[in-house]
Design goal:
The chain contains 16 helices and twelve strands. The protein has about 400 residues and is α/β, with parallel strands linked by helices. It has one domain: Alpha-Beta Barrel (TIM Barrel), CATH 3.20.20.70. An eight-stranded parallel beta sheet has the order 4-11-10-9-8-7-6-5. It has a two-stranded antiparallel ribbon with strand order 1-12.
């Protein structure tokens, strides 16, 4: 077993073990992938202030996110098709998150269903909702999340239509994979993954198949999802969904101060500064560049989390020091899941917490709540002088 010290180590194992279409689904963006790349490279522009002769003992990374105690302010973001990265992937990721003490978010487009994860974990988790034209299905999906005792609803706002992701189109992404000559050739090199998938609880979208009239197989599912994302979504509809849920709500996919103000006005418990990992609007600014303007816009009226681009504990620290209350990781934990299943997710979380803890100490802080701009060296004009 190789020594794992970084998320990049898990990424290499993930690529070697998982079929190309599912690895590419994780590690790609839309169009030219400019935003996908800059989500990470913009973090590299921010430097850290080293401080010495400070009592570093008694450190803790513990915090809260929407009132929930967390071992560190990092939640597992909703990621579709997680059950194709590793057999029963959503269940294994949820178990790892529960044991570690951080929130897990189940995607609408998961392989394991809401009920599967609830039964296997026995603990509350967050549920992410894509807004669909089929309002009856959406209402039943929300009720299923309530019945499963989900502790927060995460409504994704930046996917009213699917961004053009060249790799997914060229790979013929599907769950389970279509058996073309190219796919079969690739699967033959991933026999370990294939053997585990034979014993998986599900190999299709568990929250959809069997829950929508007329959807009984992947062919009909593909046609349904292609036309179901609600392009008429507006703030009034979001408000009605929040009323239907009646509990804590996180609005994900905010990348503009004006949208942040609208989300806060609706009473969201938190918003997530996110560009969908660079998989939607290519050419948009990175999440870390937009964090400060959004914080200035909401003025503390709602908690602000940051998603997109985090690959290390240092990235988490930079986001917190820039003002975020919490963070979400997607690719970082999926690399661990694809590499080593539940153990890999735990390893990814351990890597991030160790980096966060050590960096925090060397910056002269003992609590994540004390992190601030004073811990950073931010390039002049980092947020930019962009003209609307």
């Amino acid at each position: 077993m190789p020594v794992i010290t970084t998320i990049a180590d898990l990424k290499r194992l993930h690529e070697a073990r998982v079929p190309r279409m599912f690895y590419d689904y994780c590690e790609s963006g839309s169009w030219t992938e400019q935003t996908f790349r800059e989500n990470t490279t913009d973090f590299e522009q921010i430097r850290l202030r080293q401080r010495v002769a400070v009592d570093m003992s008694g450190r803790t990374t513990a915090s809260t996110m929407i009132g929930q105690d967390v071992a560190m302010p990092v939640a597992l973001a909703p990621v579709g098709l997680t059950g194709m990265q590793h057999a029963d992937g959503e269940i294994k990721a949820a178990r790892a998150a529960n044991a570690f003490g951080v929130p897990f978010t189940l995607s609408t487009m998961s392989i394991n269903s809401i009920e599967d994860v609830a039964e296997a974990t026995g603990k509350p988790f967050w549920f992410q909702l894509y807004t669909m034209k089929d309002t009856d299905y959406t209402a039943r999906l929300i009720q299923r999340a309530k019945d499963a005792k989900c502790s927060a609803l995460v409504i994704t706002l930046d996917l009213q239509l699917l961004g053009q992701r060249h790799k997914d189109l060229k790979n013929g992404l599907s769950a389970p994979p279509k058996l073309t000559a190219r796919t079969i050739a690739n699967l033959m090199t991933k026999w370990g993954w294939g053997l585990e998938m034979l014993g998986a609880k599900r190999r299709h979208f568990g929250n959809i198949v069997g829950h929508v009239h007329g959807i009984s197989d992947n062919a009909s599912l593909g046609a349904w999802t292609a036309e179901q994302f609600d392009q008429t979504l507006d703030w009034a509809k979001i408000g009605r969904l929040m009323e239907q849920w009646g509990g804590k709500v996180i609005l994900k996919g905010i990348l503009d101060p004006e949208d942040a103000k609208e989300a806060a006005k609706l009473g969201a418990d938190a918003i997530v500064v996110s560009n969908h990992g660079g998989r939607q609007l290519d050419g948009a600014l990175s999440s870390i560049r937009m964090l400060r303007p959004i914080l200035d816009a909401v003025q503390g009226d709602t908690e602000v989390f940051l998603d997109s681009g985090i690959r290390s504990g240092q990235d988490v620290l930079k986001a917190l020091a820039m003002g975020a209350k919490g963070t979400m990781i997607g690719r970082a934990y999926v690399h661990g899941l694809g590499a080593m299943g539940e153990k890999g997710v735990t390893t990814a979380l351990e890597v991030i917490r160790k980096e966060l803890d050590m960096t925090m100490a060397l910056c002269g802080e003992t609590r994540v709540q004390n992190l601030g701009r004073h811990n950073l060296l931010v390039p002049e004009g980092f947020e930019g002088r962009w003209q609307p």
